[in-house]
User: Fold these one by one.
Assistant:
Number 1:
Amino acid sequence: MEARAGPTRVVSGRLLLDEMFPPLLAEALRERGYDVIAIAERAEGRGLPDPQVLELAVEEQRCLLTENIGDFETLRAGRLHDGRPCPGLLYSSPYRFPRTKTAIGRLISAIEELLVDDRLPPPGQVDWLSG
């Protein structure tokens, strides 16, 4: 049997990174075998209004990682009130996880901890990134 390169784990968590997170973060997580997309990787994703970001996460069945808590909590409440689907939301803080070259490793590790254990918030639910 021939050995194949690439990730060996099977991961069910799908994650969409809001535009404040760099594509480098998504790339690093994909290299580890995770299904992670950064909105900033897509030309049509840059500057996309929050309601459309949320809709994209629903369409692609992805949990959304964002620092924009106020706006997304309002959107989540409205969708749930109206009976519309809402993705899981994972909140983070730039104070706890600064997006600097020296701190990106901590952010990757915290996200990977959730992905490896399949602990992303389910649709309609929220959680905070810790680590």
Note: Residues 14-128 form a domain with the Rossmann fold fold (CATH 3.40.50).
Number 2:
Amino acid sequence: MFKSSTLLRMATIEKFEDIISWQEARTLNLAMGKLIDSGRFKQSFRLINQIEGSAGSIMDNIAEGFERSGNREFIQFLYIAKGSCGELRSQLYRALDRGYINENEFQQFVTQAKKVSSFIQKLINYLTASDKKGAKYKSTD
């Protein structure tokens, strides 16, 4: 569960850039970009595109869901973002199996993806338990 200070911070979030899971997803996306830019994926353009897509999808779906200003839609987009974390982890297995990354890198990236997924799940849990519906429903809050 969230500590009260975390709940207070969540209650005062005004833009998606303030969301810890988005910040962590951005960090993960940057790490994936650096990995791809290193050139180790050779000619595996499909895997590159899939990794770029799923890593970007995590942060993009958190942002899009937040901008819809309703908790129900936000939760839906958070589940999509969480699914993209799983998709990225699966792609990392493929990169490991093809020798594009080593075991240490794999463990580091998977741990980072699981951390993002955990933050997203905690946000989902918080929003699900909240009686607030979101900014677009302000008159009923």
Note: The chain has one domain: 19-130.
Number 3:
Amino acid sequence: MFKKVLIANRGEIAVRIHRSCREMGIATVAVHSVADEHALHVKLATESVCIGNNPPRESYLNIPAILSAAEITNAEAIHPGYGFLAENAKFAEITEKLGFTFIGPTPAHIRLMGDKIEAIRAVKEFGLPTIPGSGGALSEAAEAARICAEIGFPVIIKAAAGGGGRGMKVAHDATQLEHALAMAQNEAQAAFGDNRVYIEKFLQTPRHIEVQVLCDTHGNVSILGERDCSLQRRHQKIIEETPSAALTDAEREPLFTRVAEACRNMGYRGAGTFEFLYENGQFYFIEMNTRLQVEHPVTEMVTGIDIVSEQIRVAAGEKLRYAHETITPRGHSIECRINAEDPVTFTPSPGKIVEYVPPGGPGVRVDSGLFPGAIVPPYYDATVAKLIVHGHTRAECVARLARALEEFVITGIKTNIPLHQKLVATKEFRAGTYTIHSLTHFLETGRFST
């Protein structure tokens, strides 16, 4: 097992990784920007290194600085968390070439799944269902029009190198297609330096279902169940839960079997998530995230498995400790992402934390890097905490979530806690009858579409 791990991230996920490391007896190295000098992950780590100025490209995306920090602290492995360099194949490749262990998938798998077009082609060969579409990159409106005539409108145009909802545009009919195609290409170029886009059929009322996997280097695959991530704003998830209220065991088990077989065929290593749209009893693969997910805690709550710890053990060459057939999820868990933003306008709200009182009680967990006096800088992602609750039933879980949101106090900045309270109070959320378009409809009209 490793003696020292460098955590190439910040905020709540850096704190989360540190905690698993310390429970395993592993020393930690925190890297930080100037703005994060007094952040909680820096305070908790065994040692810390400043890697640059505040903009991410000068610090948390600064590969030479991070690797230099690993070198001077004698770290043996690097955990990238999520975001920043977590799905950067070049970073993983250089890390391993320099003799450090990258706690994540192989560079080849990161590269394959990072290209959405190639990922779709690959999973088709592994037997996973995909959405009808172009099957490859498009460059001209005429070609796009031909594809749309075959699959029918509406369609969604996506960036091949995309993520986080960037480079995605919907065309509801032929009059919108050319403009949507140009917009998607321009946005993809600006965001990823790659203007390749592809087209898929735009599903009307899907759920967003993802399957959590853990794989070791000995051929073992464990499926840790699914998560429902359908409540999204601009393709950004804000509430996630497991199990999905929309699925039955008769639907999920065949999906788990196919995902496990895909992992074996790939020879996948580490934690990963296969993401699907689900509509009318059918699953359609959309992408695979080759990293730890923001919403991993809900899976941990129902399985009792520390996913970060398993990532580290797999990277050290150990076998998975949990066989798929021995994993029995218990109860229900829901996560709310607490963002530093205005709950109405969604304008970012950086600043100094004055009061911080997280909720507690049975079945309540808060992952955060906040404390009274902490500074929320304006340079990074808005998520500052995650509220995760667990209950024996979904109804109990929802009630516990409502209570925990009432208790949660963060002052000095604005947060989206009031929005979560409104959502949790709706009859549709309590019934679990929502789709990926529901939150958009709620924000526009004050009620869910179902």
Note: The domain at 4-85 is CATH 3.40.50.20 (Rossmann fold).
Number 4:
Amino acid sequence: MDKPQCAQKEPYEIEVEEGKTYYWCACGRSKKQPFCDGSHKGTEFKALAHKAEKSETVYFCGCKATKTPPFCDGSHEDI
């Protein structure tokens, strides 16, 4: 099983728009962090879709070790 690459050791603070779908990078290889750019091709990873239920600020995981993907759960504190 491949391990994701840590993109950064802190979350990405993102303003999301109600009804819009965002595709979180699970592999850590994307150049468009925290979002997928297809860099996972050839791995077991897939982008994770998140449809915003309301417009708000959310914190997408940057370390890729979260237990609550796509959101930060503080796992970066243990890396």
Note: The longest strand covers residues 12-16.
